[in-house]
Amino acid sequence: EPEVTQTPSHQVTQMGQEVILRCVPISNHLYFYWYRQILGQKVEFLVSFYNNEISEKSEIFDDQFSVERPDGSNFTLKIRSTKLEDSAMYFCASRTELAGLNEQFFGPGTRLTVL
Amino acid sequence: AQSVSQHNHHVILSEAASLELGCNYSYGGTVNLFWYVQYPGQHLQLLLKYFSGDPLVKGIKGFEAEFIKSKFSFNLRKPSVQWSDTAEYFCAVRGGTGANNLFFGTGTRLTVIP
Hints:
The complex is a heterodimer of chains A (115) and B (114).
Chain A: E1 5-7, E2 10-13, E3 19-24, E4 31-37, E5 43-50, E6 53-57, E7 65-68, E8 75-79, E9 88-95, E10 105-106, E11 110-114
Parallel strand pairs in A: 2-11
Antiparallel strand pairs in A: 1-3, 3-8, 4-5, 4-9, 5-6, 7-8, 9-10, 9-11
Chain B: E1 3-5, E2 10-14, E3 19-21, E4 24-26, E5 31-38, E6 44-50, E7 56-58, E8 64-68, E9 73-78, E10 87-95, E11 103-104, E12 108-113
Parallel strand pairs in B: 2-12
Antiparallel strand pairs in B: 1-4, 3-9, 5-6, 5-10, 7-8, 8-9, 10-11, 10-12
């Protein structure tokens, strides 16, 4: 069964450093998402991506964040200058179509720890 | 904006007990409703979803949920839980205005004691 994969599983970084979180969505999916979950809090939407551009983003997704689909298979989330409060679990998700009865499939997450 | 409330933060049950986890949402338009489960160390998996039609939906592993529009609720139920149901359960809603992202509740941790 196809799965969304994410690397690394755990990333530790120093405050102010740039990090890139990688995701490989399911191959025939067209819509891609990043969510995050701060420890003990709810899963929060960050951004959605379709047709090589951002389709929606939340207030959390400020200028420090960017997303890219560099090679047709990977979908990356970049945080330019990490802050302590960026420490969270980051989930990538993908789905097939905007309309229709299609669920989002989630990856296993990347735990980001900012020191 | 949509929001989702899960009032039970941690539920502890013995095996074979019945389960009901509450979920309420706030959105006046047409919504799609989901329950996801996250087993320890694993990723979010879809348990069941409601888009339209029969408000009682059945999902995997014996779970079901009932959409009650008048109460803005989508409670998850299982008549007899097993130890393997120990996990975090998230209710989520997607709704209106072309949005396709999900709004999640804070989650309910279920611990089933053998």
